[in-house]
TrEMBL record:
Belongs to the IFIT family. GO terms for biological process: defense response to virus. The lineage of its organism: Eukaryota, Metazoa, Chordata, Craniata, Vertebrata. The keyword Coiled coil applies. It comes from Xenopus laevis (African clawed frog). PANTHER family: INTERFERON INDUCED PROTEIN WITH TETRATRICOPEPTIDE REPEATS 5, INTERFERON-INDUCED PROTEIN WITH TETRATRICOPEPTIDE REPEATS. One of its GO terms (cellular component) is cytosol. TPR repeats lie at residues 280-313. It comes from the Eukaryota. Residues 51-107 form a coiled coil. This is Uncharacterized protein. InterPro entries: TPR-like_helical_dom_sf (IPR011990), TPR_rpt (IPR019734). Keywords: Coiled coil, Repeat, TPR repeat.
Length: 437
């Protein structure tokens, strides 16, 4: 029978030495990882731009980005793939993140962009971060070195590199969530300092300022005029960009320039619809234009076409809900109701259609603040006060909206409690909650 040899002092010392070696290697590895992360934190990309998971509905964002891939042009798809890679990382799926980055890189390759071009910086930065989280330090370092090579090749072009970086950050912030619009505006303004005539960054600035005006203009109408010159300039610099033309038409419409506005929607030249007749982003703004002009049937026809392309678009369903509600209001205002069975059915259909589409919005875009308000309003109109109150309660509990929006939620809920429920004490509580924010 064989027995293992007794462990003498020498064998114990060997074990201690091996343990020391392992500890030393671990310390070196930890130090190396810390150094690598420090280098990564200096990169300018989605991982360092402050895109917080808590500020967005990640599932809705992912679905929206996937929808965009169906109809955006090739150049814009690279930007979407990069943001999708970051979303996949937030969902702890770094392998899928790599797949999306490979698709973004392939777009550049197919466009014959050499690997040392600054256009690769964002994708390579994201690669470096994802490989770091995959514990593949060598691959992460490889991409850091690739970026260093690009910076070396771009000497003398530092201003353009910075401009490009700020511009990409601006679009990432715009696409991530509405809370970041102010930051996005600042980024586009920085991007334009070094490259004031860049069509892409001018379009980005005009778009985000327009959206900020739409948001704030509900309460401060005087705020809604700043984007006019920005949109006009963006259209001149980017004459083939149909979305910016549609936004400019909406702005002209707001300024009571209906005839001029219509030329950008459906004119004889290169109008928005002619440029991209099947682009959902254009269709939704064209429909909004028609709705504001009181052309409800035309708006609904355009929206139904857009919904057939992107059936889960919260914006499209919201616009449909607004169309049906305005048709209902118009019917009541003009006194067309003859109280006949046919008229009663028409009113009922308009109500049900409006409610259906507002409910659809909140199925796919839970943080769409004004869709909550619009749905609650329709519940009140259809004598469903209990559902209206439940809707207001839900909106006050949202966590992915800005502080300003939270104040709006408490104000709207308080107004409902005061005017519809006739509960002064409860309404005062809501007003106080809003003031505390």
């Amino acid at each position: 029978m064989c027995y293992p040899p007794e462990r003498g002092p020498f064998s114990i010392n060997i074990l201690k030495y091996r343990k020391y070696q392992l500890c030393a290697l671990y310390c070196i590895y930890s130090e190396s990882q810390a150094t690598l992360k420090s280098r990564l934190e200096e990169l300018k990309c989605h991982f360092t731009w402050g895109l917080q998971e808590k500020d967005a509905d990640i599932e809705e964002l992912e679905e929206r980005l996937n929808n965009q891939l169906e109809y955006l042009n090739v150049d814009s798809k690279g930007r979407v793939y990069n943001l999708l890679a970051y979303v996949k990382h937030l969902k702890n799926n770094n392998t899928e993140a790599i797949v999306n980055l490979q698709k973004a890189e392939a777009i550049l390759w197919d466009s014959k962009v050499v690997e040392t071009d600054m256009k690769y910086l964002m994708t390579f930065s994201n690669y470096a971060w994802v490989y770091y989280y995959l514990n593949d330090s060598e691959s992460s370092k490889l991409y850091v070195e690739k970026m260093n090579t690009i910076y070396m090749q771009s000497k003398g072009l530092e201003d353009l590199v910075q401009s490009d970086t700020y511009g990409e950050q601006g679009w990432a912030l715009v696409n991530f969530c509405g809370q970041y619009y102010e930051k996005a505006k600042d980024c586009f303004e920085e991007a334009l300092k070094a490259n004031p005539d860049d069509p892409e960054w001018n379009t980005g600035l005009a778009t985000v300022v327009y959206r900020l005006e739409e948001f704030r203009g509900r309460n401060w109408p005087s705020f809604k005029s700043f984007s006019f010159q920005l949109l006009e300039r963006a259209v001149k610099l980017n004459p083939k960009e149909s979305v910016i033309k549609a936004l400019f038409a909406l702005k002209l419409q707001e300024l009571k320039k209906q005839e001029e506005a219509m030329k950008y929607i459906k004119g004889e030249g290169k109008d928005a619809l002619e440029l991209t007749p099947d682009l959902p982003y254009v269709l939704r703004y064209v429909a909004k234009f028609y709705r504001r002009a009181g052309m409800f049937e035309e708006a609904i026809a355009v929206l139904k076409k857009a919904v057939s392309i992107t059936p889960t678009s919260g914006f499209l369903h919201h616009q449909l809900g607004l169309c049906y509600r305005q048709m209902l209001k118009q019917r009541n205002r003009t006194g067309r109701g003859d109280k006949s069975g046919q008229d009663t059915q028409k009113i009922k259909d308009l109500m049900e259609n409006s409610i259906f589409h507002f409910e659809m919005v909140l199925e796919v875009k839970k943080a769409f603040l004004h869709a909550h308000f619009d749905l609650a309003d329709m519940y009140v109109r259809s004598n469903q006060s209990k559902k209206a109150e439940e809707t207001y309660k839900k909106v006050t509990e949202l966590t992915t909206i800005s502080e300003y929006e939270k104040q709006q939620a408490h104000l709207e809920y308080g107004t409902f409690l005061e005017n519809c429920k006739k509960s002064e004490d409860e309404s005062v509580d809501q007003y106080k909650e809003g003031l505390r924010i």
